[in-house]
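Model it.
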Amino acid sequence: MAHLLNVARPSMSLAVLLPMLLPVLLAACATPTATAPGPQITTPLPQARFASVVAPETASPAPPATLASPAPAASAASTQAGDKPDPTGTTTADESLVSVPVAEFAASTRESLRETAVWLASGIDGWFGDTPFERGGKVSAGLMDLSVVKREGDKVDVGLRVNARFRLPNLDRLGYVFVGRDNEREIVTDTPGALTRQDQRQPVSSVNNKFFVGLGRAIDDVFDFRIGVRGAFKPYVQARGRLAWNLSPDDRLDLSQTVFWTVDDRVGSTTVLSYQHTLSPVLALRWLSSATVTQELPKFVWASSVGTYRSFGQDRLLSLEALINGQQGSGVGALDYGLQARWEQPVHHDWLLAGVVIGHFWPRPLAQEPRRSAWSVGANVKIRF
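Modeled.
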């Protein structure tokens, strides 16, 4: 069983029209290829979860988000425990857009990340048995993502996410352990990564990021049960069920339902619905929506996004998304909505990538305040290890 470590306005009528018009406008401007489908990307959409979790691949916290686009580079493929990545990277595209000192620093960082991941995986595995980690243990699909975002009127936000898949031979028979540091509320409610405050370019406070650890068990890739603690030993429990329907060769519908318990919330529930439509081998649409309610706060907190994703090959991806979120009974309709565009591409071989994002939002957090307009810009760097 594989295991996963993720370390880390205008008027309301316009808000309703934006999600409907966005896919049509971008699809009209795109140039889908009519040739036979090429390789497929499995992770073109914003990742479902950025928290640090050691868990089975099949039990990742949000519904699956697959889409037609170019495949992940070979550098993110499985590597046996103890192996080190080639610091120069191996790819058919030898193009480098960074200077030699930057490339050398990135290669050193990549090797350190790899060694740390192997050390952590073998250490966790040793807690659960005497089988040496070298006998079937491995780390694969490693990724570090460093981002900087500035929204007009707010402070600069810096985010660091680290992900890797662990195969832990001593843990296969027991379930899985999850551990890490992320937004406390979004961990407990099981919020999809694409709908987190950080990904929706909302103000984020590091005070809300807490360490967490726990034990989970997956059943038939459909049900997932967890018990854990976060922050100052505050317990929480989660039970999640997921269903997926392939409506046609080009259409997929995913439903995820998480029931959770905490001392403060008592019982709560998060429902996530995702619909994806493939327009061509390089162009796809996705609608993602979630709603959370608890006994302590019996009013829905909701968020939604509609996006178009266009691949240009070699891990080059352009996306345009309409985002909206709010809370039932807030008195302002949507608390925040807007548009954002992203571009990402490799800058050194196939393992060092960089991206930029620009967006325009119309927040109104309080009914007493007028809705304001705010631009947002950001950049990120990714290292595969």
